[in-house]
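DM from R.C. (forwarded with permission)

"hey, sorry to bug you on a friday — could you get me a structure for this? deadline for the figure draft is monday and I only need the backbone to look sensible"
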Amino acid sequence: MIMEDEWADLPPASTAETAAEPSATGSEKKKRKKRKKPPPLVYPNLHEFVTDYFAQIIRRRLSGNTQVWCAEWWRHPEALSRLTAVWRAWEHLQHEPALGMSTWWLQHCDPHMRALMAPDTGPFSMCRPERHSTDLKPLPLVPAHPSLWLNPAYSSAPDQGDEASAS
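My reply, with the result:
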């Protein structure tokens, strides 16, 4: 089933990205408007990608010693994030006829699978194919002093209105 990409029209994640760009000329703005619409997605969501494609082509011996998997993969935030990255890369690269799938396997799928299925360090390390475990906890954190995040290296640049109100 092919669906439109529901995230295609979202604004950039950070306004700092667009604020850092020089102002576009009229012809540059026209070029942006004429950009091709992204092709429709082959899989409308992560669940269908994993169940209908990914889990069908990825076949591994799951001994628990060398590789692990959790049948309830969606309950692991890291797995959701990594598998979303794998899915999105696949959706993009499957349109590249020459090297798309090779790039997907070598640069996206293989590294993420090694991280996900690592028996000692991966998010499924406490699970077995027949048993989900929630024993892994988020990384421990100690809050940093808030002034650290004011440094432009660690935050988006304040917009003009913020500087004026600070004066």
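R.C.: lifesaver. The CA atoms of residues 70 and 99 lie 31 Å apart.
me: no worries. DSSP finds six helices and no strands in the chain.
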